[in-house]
Design brief:
Structural class: mainly beta
């Protein structure tokens, strides 16, 4: 087999696997030389509106010599064809492409697409007179490259006359319409239309803790919760979405697929390691724990330790252990594992074990609040199934002041938190610690 092509300039130098055949040094008509050498069977690959090798200057024609072909049991000459992008061809130098389209295969027949009334249809099956798009094609007889091309050896053949033409069957990318369904009203709002032949379902990335959305649309301050094929949310999507087309004719059977999605409020993360919790720490973040988190030698997030946490941690019974935090800035008014747990914050089914919180610096301003779990727990915060153990340390450099200090929280009531194994100690000899427990709130007072 010999391969001939039409290339230009530098590209011809790059694609050295294309054999350039020219009679008397002329490229215009190499077929006479091919016939003289016995290469008379031409197979042309018609790329249609697409291109080979990302340029309009490439054509692909394979030519074969009858004498080089094998003979089957019936005495017929045969050979096997190579797809243009076969690895045997110069590292895929002849890959076909067409922007916004999918190559369904190579077909022996191609005809303009029409309806039963003979009216022109576009590639989506819509009337061209309505869509304004060019006329599409319908295809027949897909070529199976695993089967041989059988050649009539008794007929007269010429290289310039294609023995076989294979047409690239281009299918325009599918339209995936994404809708967000309101959890209360059930109304569906169009988010985005994405053109593709397939869409891989978003997956949680265990390395980052984030939801990898792939090509799916994103919604600010929300996290994808479910994907469905119906607005009633009964047909769950659990795998890759594929465009639907008829392989016999290489035409779309449906041009648009509607996809319905539900969303959780806020940014959600699946947490497997301490580093993931640290790198994804947000005051409005929502976290689901899938493993125990040991912070030995790790750093707790300063964002959480000082700020107002409005998110959620769903522990699934897991532990966050061996956390050490020191408050060392006199401008910090609130501090603990969380500076403040707001009225919307939720800690559910999680254990904080062997936590050390040190008040290394204080403030003479009134209203300063510190605790092992939080400086402040606001009314309405949901603390369910939470257990805390550890130590509250009043540092040697922490002078007495009008503090609100608690083993669990300095201000508010940590109802629903187990705290049997929380202790307090002072690094300052002149400081006297007194622990009081009233109405389920454990507080520490100190003075010189």
């Amino acid at each position: 087999m010999k391969k001939i092509g039409k290339l230009s300039g530098l590209l011809a130098l790059l694609l050295l696997t294309v054999l350039m055949i020219a009679a008397c040094g002329k490229w215009e008509d190499p077929y006479l030389v091919l016939d003289e050498q016995g290469y008379s069977i031409s197979v042309r690959y018609d790329v249609g509106d697409g291109v080979f090798a990302n340029t309009n200057d490439v054509s692909v024609v394979d030519v074969y010599a009858l004498n080089d072909m094998k003979t089957n049991a019936n005495g017929e000459k045969f050979t096997y064809l190579l797809q243009p992008d076969d690895p045997a061809r110069a590292q895929n130098a002849f890959a076909a492409s067409y922007s916004g389209h999918f190559l369904a295969g190579w077909y022996q027949e191609r005809t303009p697409r029409v309806n039963e009334n003979g009216e022109a249809l576009d590639a989506y099956g819509e009337l061209c007179s309505v869509s304004g798009e060019p006329q599409g094609y319908t295809y027949a007889k897909p070529w199976d490259f695993s089967k041989p091309l059988v050649v009539d050896s008794n007929a007269e053949h010429h290289a310039k006359e294609n023995y076989l033409t294979l047409y690239a069957a281009w299918i325009p990318y599918y339209h995936f319409e994404f809708y967000a369904v309101d959890a209360v009203t059930g109304e569906a709002e169009l988010l985005e239309t994405i053109q593709s032949m397939s869409l891989e379902l978003p997956q949680w990335n265990e390395s980052t803790g984030k939801l990898d959305m792939k090509k799916y649309p994103k919604v600010d301050n929300k996290t994808l919760d479910g994907v469905y094929l119906d607005p009633a949310l009964t047909q769950t999507v659990e795998s890759t979405l594929e465009g639907a087309y008829d392989p016999a004719t290489a035409t779309l059977t449906v041009s648009t697929l509607k996809v319905y999605t539900t969303w959780l409020e806020g940014d959600w993360f699946h947490i497997y390691t301490p580093d993931q919790l640290y790198s994804n720490s947000r005051l409005g973040g929502n976290y689901i724990l899938y493993a125990d988190l040991d912070f030995t030698g790790k750093t707790w997030s300063p964002t959480l330790a000082k700020g107002v946490f409005t998110g959620k941690i769903i522990g699934n019974g897991h532990k966050i252990s061996n956390v050490s935090v020191e408050q060392a800035n006199t401008s910090d008014y609130y501090g603990g594992l969380f500076g403040t747990l707001s009225e919307s914050a939720e800690l559910i089914d999680v254990t904080f074990e062997n936590v050390t919180y040190k008040i290394g610096a204080g403030s003479r301003m009134p209203g300063v609040a510190f605790g092992v779990l939080a400086g402040v727990v606001a009314d309405g915060a949901n603390l369910t199934g939470v257990s805390v153990s550890g130590t509250l340390i009043v540092g040697a450099d922490c002078y007495p002041g009008e503090y609100m200090v608690g083993l669990i929280c300095g201000q508010g009531t940590a109802t629903g938190v187990s705290h049997e194994n929380v202790t307090a100690l002072s690094e300052k000899d002149t400081t006297v610690l007194e622990i009081h427990e009233e109405s389920g709130s454990v507080t520490v007072t100190f003075g010189s």
